[in-house]
């Protein structure tokens, strides 16, 4: 009996080793003719999209970079030109909350493509939105972030899908690990990312009939993208508290607000994964690998905290959150102390 168990353990070990070796080599296989492939990326003013646009252009892809601001577009063009890849990258004004803007961007890209299809459509544009306990938020707070992170993805995907079908290309979208597990004080963001994940899961099943593959990125915390920049976060939090009704302020208390702000900042610092190039590299792999992943989980916090947490029964999740809060000092509104 003992011998049988040992043999089984050896076989399992060998099988796991073979699996990882095969995965290692498959990961290195790439699609050919990068210089003949065209990619449209949204949200290229800064962060992941900015890095990806430059990375793709440096590898001879034809890149159409959607930028929300003129300043962001100019900075991207300057970097491309100084790197000698300006001819491979073209910026296009884009506001994903506006169907007219999306339509205009489509017309530009379609004209540039000529008889080519679009190898890659990258939905990168996103917003953190307003955070805080739901008692402090408004319906408009939820609507504004949904319009970018969810409806914006739908607008762009529906408009550009025919071009991706033509090339039998790839549709790559950034969601979040918070599209799998919810976090207190991040209601609008979590809600928008849950919706984004669901939409991409639906498209992944539908688009395979057309030879189009769909891929989701689930990054953890990356402070350097600008979404979690300290001054911007402080400003947003102060504005939310300032506009909150007097009755709600009394219910929570000024001390709760200050401690909540400090806790938010500590959490971001603790979970920060550093260089956002890791996310751009995941995008790049999804667009260039012969066998890309369906989902890319990026960041230590994603792999060791959020994804495992999302797989637990809800009652255990709640118990763990309560335990973590207790260990780090629970934030309790004045009205329930």
Descriptive report:
The protein is an alpha/beta fold and 337 residues long. Helix 3 (70-82) links the parallel strand 2 (62-67) and strand 3. It is globular and about 65 Å long. The protein contains 13 helices and 7 strands. It has a domain at 34-226 and 273-309: NAD(P)-binding Rossmann-like Domain (Rossmann fold, 3-Layer(aba) Sandwich). Helix 4 (99-113) packs parallel to helix 6 (151-167) and helix 5 runs parallel beside helix 7 (187-207). Strands 3-2-1-4-5-6-7 form a 7-stranded parallel beta sheet, sandwiched between helices. The chain starts with a helix and ends in a 10-residue tail after the last helix. GO terms for molecular function: oxidoreductase activity. It holds the Pfam family adh_short.
Name the descriptors.
337 residues, alpha/beta, Rossmann fold, 7-stranded parallel beta sheet, 13 helices
Topology overview:
Elements (H helix, E strand, L loop, with lengths): L1 H27 L9 E4 L5 H12 L3 E6 L2 H13 L6 E5 L5 H15 L6 E4 L15 H11 L1 H17 L2 E5 L12 H21 L5 E7 L10 H14 L2 H7 L1 H18 L5 H12 L6 E4 L1 H11 L3 H14 L10
Helix pairs in contact: 2-11, 4-6, 5-7
Amount of beta strand: 5-15%
Mean pLDDT: 90
Task: Specify the number of helices.
Answer: 13
Q: What is the CATH homology-level superfamily of the domain at 34-226 and 273-309?
A: NAD(P)-binding Rossmann-like Domain
Looking at the structure, what is the overall shape? globular
Question: If you consult CATH, what is the topology of the domain at 34-226 and 273-309?
Answer: Rossmann fold
**Rounded to an integer, what's the Rg over CA atoms?**
22 Å
Strand order of the largest sheet: 3-2-1-4-5-6-7
GO molecular function, one term: oxidoreductase activity
InterPro entries: NAD(P)-bd_dom_sf, SDR_fam
Pfam family, one: adh_short
